[in-house]
Design brief:
- Helix 2 packs across helix 6.
- Strands 3, 4, 7, 8 and 9 form a 5-stranded antiparallel sheet that branches. Strands 13, 14, 16, 17 and 18 form a 5-stranded antiparallel sheet that branches. A 4-stranded antiparallel sheet has the order 1-2-6-5, with no helix packed on it.
- The protein is an alpha+beta fold and 405 residues long.
- It is rod-shaped, with a radius of gyration of 45 Å.
- Helix content is 24%, strand content 33%.
- A hairpin with a 4-residue loop joins strand 25 and strand 26.
- The protein folds into 3 domains: 92 residues, Immunoglobulin-like (Sandwich); 93 residues, Immunoglobulins (Immunoglobulin-like), CATH 2.60.40; 160 residues, Collagenase (Catalytic Domain), CATH 3.40.390.
- Keywords: Signal.
- This is Fibronectin type-III domain-containing protein.
Length: 405
């Protein structure tokens, strides 16, 4: 009986010990270590490169993720220090931390502040600013032709763009001034279509006056380049006049002929006085018996009834005879030999006006070509035909052709 009664007293302490031991073991196994704190990442700016007028590359490196995950990296850039605008995510990056970002739409010849950034759950960290200077705009290489064709108040001038340097051109042309090295702030004549080969007419000038010209081009960035400075000059005004003999009681046919002939010689004389410095007095008559028209060096010109020859081209052709072409012995003894024109000035003007360096004047005892307007079929009515004709005559006068005996 005693042994039976004692058993519960022994068992209770043992149970309590087992329970206490189990509870202590369970608390120890469920404890978690404290989490490691995340800090801002660290990074450096390695370099910049591939700098142009409008683009550049930035190379950076993340040296520490700060114990977190990098969720974004790239650059911020602007014209002031510590930029936050123009945020640009890196276009490529490596597990070792290097990354590359591209800057675009920059302005030429401009200083920018650039800094790399990296972002994790703690926030965004930046590199110190890196200064970057875009390159200046490469302007075109220009050429101003030293040859030109002068009128009284007009100059025909030329030039070209030798190398646009890969930049789009906004405008090309030639500027002019009485002072050396003219700019586009002076008088300028722009080409119609941003031409790279320039042949331009400048009007509104003063007679017998020296000027300076330069070819120019302005590119898409607004930068202007100039060719060399070339001195040019207009010529003295010509002094050609004419008298048209008319019947005091003209028939209807004569009146119509007089009107056509007068219009033709008015225009032809204007060309001579505006594009040559020749002095000559002409006496024009209407003679129905003349098949086409004829002239002599004494200034007498006869025009026939064929209406195709009562035009400006015929008037110019006959006026050339009146100032010596085919009418003075100098023509066949000095200027036309073996059918080839021997003078230099007229050929120089011809080649400049036609823009063809191989053009050359030829002729016979009476005429020259091209641009001699030797027949109604050659009279197109084109202004440049008439101007080139009289400029060639001006060149012939410089080559020594006399206007009278």
């Amino acid at each position: 009986m005693k042994s039976v009664i004692l058993l519960p007293c022994i068992a209770v302490p043992l149970f309590l010990c087992v329970v206490a031991c189990s509870k202590s073991s369970r608390d120890s196994s469920t404890d978690t270590p404290p989490a490691t704190a995340v800090s801002l990442p660290t990074l450096v700016a390695d370099s910049t490169g591939s700098i142009t007028t409008s683009t550049a590359s930035f190379f950076g490196k993340i040296t520490s993720k700060g114990g977190g995950t990098i969720t974004d990296r790239g650059i911020c850039w602007g014209k002031t220090a510590n930029p936050t605008e123009n945020k640009t995510t890196a276009i490529s990056y490596r597990s070792s931390g290097e990354f590359t970002a591209e800057l675009k739409t920059l302005e030429p010849n401009t200083t920018y502040y650039v800094r790399g950034y990296a972002t994790n759950s703690k926030g965004t960290a930046y590199t110190p600013d890196v200064l970057l200077n875009t390159t200046g705009v490469p302007v075109a290489e220009m050429f101003t032709d030293t040859l030109f064709a002068p009128g009284v108040t007009t100059l025909f001038v030329a030039g070209k763009v030798i190398d646009a340097r890969g930049i789009g051109l906004k405008e090309t042309g030639i500027c002019i001034s009485k002072n050396t090295n003219p700019t586009i702030a002076d008088t300028k004549v722009a080409s119609a279509g941003k031409d790279q080969s320039l042949f331009l007419r400048i009007n509104g000038l003063e007679p017998a006056t020296a000027y300076y010209i330069r070819a120019y081009s302005t590119n898409s960035y607004g930068a202007t380049a100039y060719g060399s400075n070339v001195k040019v000059a207009t010529i003295p005004r010509g002094n050609v006049s004419y008298t048209l003999a008319q019947s005091p009681n003209p028939t209807a046919e004569e009146s119509a002929a007089y009107a056509r002939i007068k219009a033709a010689f008015d225009e032809a004389v204007a060309y001579y006085n505006n594009f040559t410095s020749i002095t000559k007095t002409l006496y024009v008559t209407y003679n129905p018996g003349v098949p086409t028209a004829d002239a002599s060096i004494n200034g007498n010109i006869r025009v026939g009834s064929n209406t195709g020859y009562q035009r400006t081209g015929t008037a110019l052709h006959e006026m050339a005879h009146a100032v010596g072409v085919g009418q003075h012995t100098f023509w066949t003894s000095n200027l036309i030999i073996g059918g080839v024109y021997q003078g230099t000035e007229a050929n120089k003007l011809l080649r400049f006006m036609t823009r063809n360096p191989t053009d050359a004047l030829k002729g016979d005892t009476q005429h020259f070509w091209p641009y001699g307007i030797n027949g109604a079929n050659e009279d197109t009515g084109a202004e440049m035909l008439y101007i080139t004709n009289v400029m060639v005559i001006q060149g012939m006068k410089k080559d020594g052709l006399p206007s009278s005996y």
